[in-house]
Amino acid sequence: MKNKDMLFDENLLIEIFIKADDLCKEIESEVFSKILEDKTIYGGYQKPCCKMSESEIMTLLIYYHYSGYKCFEYFYCQFVANELSSYFPKLLSYNRFTEVLSCVSLPLFIFAKVLCSLSLQTGISFIDSKKIVVCHNRRIHQHKVFKGRAARGKSSTGWFYGFKVHLVINEKGEILDFDLTPGNVADNNHSLLKRILGKVKGLCFGDKGYNTALWKDFFQQGLKIIT
Questions:
Q1: Same domain flag for 110 and 21
Q2: Where is the Transposase DDE domain (predicted)?
Q3: Which of 30, 36, 69, 224 ranks highest by number of CB atoms within 10 Å?
């Protein structure tokens, strides 16, 4: 369940928490006040109704990807509950933790966007998408978790139900921008490309799915898409 070569990194855990906590405080003071006034924005943001803070929840979600564990439930129940309880004195049960995850989706999204803004614009970039399957096709009508958000889409391997993550990276592997869409959003969707390529310049390489009528607009901003 865990890569034996991975060891607990206290400094990394603390670094992640500090960055997450600073961002949460900034977002709450500058952005969330407006969201609370207008319930139509992001469905009306609400802080998690639990003892753990948003930054603590975000820290565990992010640190999991550095931990070497392959299963989040095992990571939480075996490692976090036993080894990190002193760092998180108000730790929730695993079931309760999963119930409040949706409350940090917005700050996590903003956190990721901030990290993307730190990536180096080198003039060479690559664009691609990857499907995120949330359930088997035969269970679509029974699926409730992402009902109304996920959608049926088609990839090179066939039909699926879920989402797509669209990534733009440089040749160093740094993520320049990204977006998460329902599975039925085409790779060359105009509004999607404007969002994730709006600040990219130079040469951008992608497959034929990224052929777009917007090439003139992108060329004027200094970007040439090569498919």
A1: yes
A2: 121-227
A3: 69
Burial class of 89 by CB neighbour count within 10 A (0 to 12, 13 to 18, 19+): exposed
Summarize pLDDT for 184-215 with one digit per residue, the tens.
Answer: 999 999 999 999 999 999 999 998 888 888 88
Question: Which residues lie below 8 Å from residue 26, measured CB to CB, with a gap of 6+?
Answer: none
Answer whether residue 5 is part of any domain. Answer: no
Cα 103-104-110 angle, rounded to 5 deg: 135
Residues 96 and 58 in one domain: yes
Residue partners of 165: CB distance under 8 A and separation at least 6: 129, 130, 132, 178, 179, 180
pTM over the 0.85 mark: no
Residues ≥6 apart with Cβ < 8 Å to 3: 68, 69, 70
Under 8 Å between Cβ of 192 and 112:
no
